[in-house]
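Hey, quick one: can you model this chain's 3D structure?
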Amino acid sequence: MATEALVSFAVERLGDKLIQEAKFLKGVSRQADRLHRDLRSMQCFLEEADKKQEEDSRVRNWVSEIREAVYNAEDIIDMFILNAQSLRRNFFLKRGFKKLINRYKVGKKIEALQLGLLDISNRREALGIQNIGEGTSRSAQMLQDLRRSTPHAQEHVVMGLEKEANELVEQLIRGGDQRRRVISLVGMGGIGKTTLAKKVYNHTQVLKHFPDCRAWAYVSQDCRPRDVYMQIIKQMVFTSTKDQQVLETEEKLTEHELGDFLHEHLKKKRYLIVLDDVWSCRDWNCLAKVSNNDLDCLGNVFPDGGNGSRLLLTTRDKDVALHADARSTPQEMQLLSKQKSWDLFCRKAFLDHVDADRYPRDLVQLGREMVDKCNGLPLAIVVLGGLLSRNMSHIEWTKVHDNINVYLAKEGSQTGVMTVLNLSYIDLPSNLKPCFLHLSLFPEDYVISTRKLFLLWIAEGFVLSAEQADQQSMKVTAEVYLNELINRNLIQVVRMSVNARVVECRVHDLMRELAIRKAKEQNFFRTHDIADPLSSSTSNSSLFSSKCRRQSIYSDMERYASVEHNTPYLRSLLFFNLGHEICRISQLDFIGKCFKVLRVLDLEGVEVESLPSIVGTLIHLRYLGLRHTGLKLLPLSIGNLRSLQTLDVNNLKQVPNMIWKIQNIRYLYMEGQEDDIPLKIDTLENLQVLSGITFKQWIQNNSSKLTCLGKLKLEGRYELVEGVEFWKSIAKLRVLKFLYLKASEESSFPSLAMDSCLYLSKLDIKGHMQKLSETFQFPPNLSQLTLDSCRLDCDPMPILEKLPKLLTLRLRAKSYLGTEMHVSANGFPQLKVLQLLELSKVIKLNIENGAIPWLMQLHCHFSTRIFGVDKLSNLVEVKIVNDSMIPSFSRSSRYHLYWDHSWTTNRKGQNEFWARRRKGLISDQNSAVAVELIGPIFSRWDSTREKGS
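Sure thing. Here's the predicted structure for all 949 residues.
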């Protein structure tokens, strides 16, 4: 449960608000501060209570009461500040009278809340739940016993794991590497890690390679090293009298004595030990007895005898795998394809008869739709198939089909799908639980922009703690949160940037269902979509609780806007255009009238006629998303949004010159302005990202006041500004790391003198360049450079190859109009990524011996012949892109079915290339070019492999 985390965040926000809004809280600050202290005093009980509430209804009710009390406190303070702000517009005498009334009412509400908190505290003791942190719950122990794995209980239905099993067997018995290695299977709950480990553990070659020293131990979330050691020892063969005497007194041995005994027994043997279900790095350290000085995490229990010993770990957390053995690459389990999912389902539902044609078409159709809902998760498919195999009637299958999530949650009780997935949620640290629950707001299969996700988390207040003192680090912290959720296999990566940063992600359907269940328990959110229509027969109060904090709207938006709303304390409102219909909202006044304490409003992709001025009364609003809404103008009242952190809008006719008043704003996106009118922004001292300001608007401001600006995107007509003055203004930005310059079609860049920009590390230039700057004119610390549509006539490589710190170079469409490029010896001394994208006119790239020594990734056009590629000793990835694979209907989406293929440092890529060639997927002409390009690479990799073995 996330109650402890949500309450902690709410209490922290309340404390911050008492400091920030002191002028508004004058008169009730003493009571508000006392309330804050009372809430803080209850936090010490919440962490353990949160873990126990699923087993004890008394604890569950107590925790729920605390959550409601915190929500009430937050609502009282927010409404008081809102009323105090509105009173400032009244006459002096009237304002003074209303202030007294307002303070009196709020004081009474706070007193009533404090009495309620006292009652809650007293009942905690009366219910006898003051020692809730002791012991292990009965249901948790039962679940652990049910999930306990053994290597002998092999699955009879194992589909699609042959390839993975063979790769794993090779790692276990490979003769070239004699050091003790930890090989890890990583993946989300229910993906088949234990099943694959059992298959490999009992494999004939593995049995032969580890004939007399193998053991399997189940670890679990409740990691107890002594129990694990005993599991291992009981599977070992002991021949010496001394060992047998020790074993006779095993019950008297301490944990450390058992660990030492195991170490002594293993150090002379080649062993294989499986540690199934390891949850954390701390658990690994406890099991292996790793000391702080043991950087390789070898520990004092599992020795390295240099004889090819292996440990096989299964874990849901990639960080655990990398921590246990940083030199081994974890094997990440993949979801099943549609065909393999169907085959697995048929074996379970149709009792090993894969031939589905023997069964009624209506059952097959229902079955396929249900399998699609499982989204490739083996556990869900097995549970579903087993359930349906008991009753082959159309009525029963339809019943399961219409309520599939309910059945997946219930089936098998403690071993149901949701119960297994819930373990990952329970294991989350408190700071990540709200972030995970927030993902439930997004529609099914929705691809989420991580940039947007980070800004939403920050606006919600989920990124808190010491980092708040440094606002620059909040997005970095949010990215750390995301990566941890990814490593724990709770989020799936959709797209990565060239710098290996996650750009887009999504949530597995069943993980989303888990998040929805948990979020509803917390009154965290409600959704409205096509499957849950706002019919006249359903009251609005039943759809959305008055205490609901967040809503996401997927359809029928005009109707949503017209109904009566009973959620005055709503904090977040998100609209999603899923493409089912034209999404339009003609009137938005209801938002300002009904949701006065709103923090997040996102209308991205929804057609909006106008933004009413009443939006300016939402003084608590932190995030306003208006991208792709068709809006051309913003109301002048936008300047009243004093709490706004993010404004994301594009393609406005003009931006009102009131932005300067939003002094709390940190992230301002306003690309595509039609009118280049003056815009004051130099009062925004907290601004970190500014995207879409024109060159003319920029030069009219004093950039030295923008002390926090780290990312800047300028567009428009560059010739309207004086070059020297412009670069002086950029040089004043002491924390600027990323600069994007986009010239309009009728404009162009002269040679740019950027050497005064000492802190700039990333530069992106799009638009015609009259001449490429000389090497000394580039920023001295530039590490990433992108050129797009620059239409350079001369080869840029002789200049760019001399940039000493350049790590990534991307030359996009029409950046260079010539046919040949040349990299001289010693050119690009640090470059790791070279992308020559859509340069269809370049037919030759010549790389001299000694050039680009650290290049790891090379992307180029199909027509480009590369000479000297065989000398690139660190190259691990080559991508060949064919223009013909770009669909005419969408230039932004590519389907690189066979030429956008990565070859890695093993034979896998080579084998796949020739397999595709034999199947006719690659033409003779394409094959010839590919062999000419990558043949030397394969030859070098083969020779390296032979030397290694």
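One thing worth noting: Residues 28 and 103 are 6 Å apart (CA to CA).
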